Amino acid sequence: MSKVRKYLLFTFISSWIIQVIGCSDLDHNNMAGAVSFSYALSFCMLMPTLGAFFSKADVGRMGWRPNITKNIKLILFAWLMPTVFQIAGAALYYLVFSDDIAHSGEYLRDVDCEAFEECVRTGSSYGMYIAKEIFYSLTSFYTCFGVFLGLGEEIGWRGFLYPELKNRFGKAKGLLLGGTIHGVWHFPLILLAGYEYGTRYIGAPLLGLFAFCVFTVTTGIISDWLYVKSGSIWLPAIIHSTTNTTFNPCMIRGTGHLERSVFGPMDIGLIAIIPMAIFAAGLIYIDYRRKIDVFEEL
Known about the structure:
Blueprint (H helix, E strand, L loop, with lengths): L2 H22 L6 H14 L2 H8 L13 H29 L9 H6 L1 H10 L3 H14 L1 H14 L2 H13 L1 H14 L2 H7 L12 H25 L3 H12 L28 H15 L10
Helix pairs in contact: 1-2, 1-3, 1-11, 3-8, 4-13, 8-13, 9-10, 10-12, 12-13, 12-14
């Protein structure tokens, strides 16, 4: 059995079992169930790394030195750009669905009433609260912790699977296939727990599965570019973390059109992903049409 098959079998079987168990305990109205689900997700993120070890991947050669001086621009990109993409994508979504904007903070009131009451009590404007959230998404200490969780996935996806797929199928097909596999890995969460989109969105559940694969293909291209250019596995781990912890533009929306979640305003939506997808497509275009190898180590 090939290394790739061993990796996929171990990673998918172990991860899907964890996801199914985590979803079975999930109760959105029960804090204990939500915490249990969160722990299951965190544990699941380690399975790609264990899969790499199981398939006997050469983990030691994945680039463990961050080379901060050489990679400082790429590190800043990985740290800051997910928030930039998120804001741009949300702006595009709200441009299309302007009736989804709520200036009174009703989403925050329904989702996090304590934060809403804090705004009212301190007299802070809703706009100021959103500005603070954007600032926190760029400076959050949780992002630092999330890098290690992201590393649990990236050792398997970018460190092992992507190079194997690109060597076998070529860059374009390898990146497309790798991103699709990464998306399918999340399917039990989407189908059983309404992960990311909920359960009542337009085209559920098939459109959500497709939209999330668009997201993972897009982020996969950018993450692989960072990995190859930097020569360090820490770069895709950083952007994985910052993508997961970036500013949540849902706090601007109302609660009357939740069926549009498959379109945005989070960057997993088919409209909100467009700015990031354009950047990823630009990398592919430059690399293949202009014959400039942007996926080449500096």
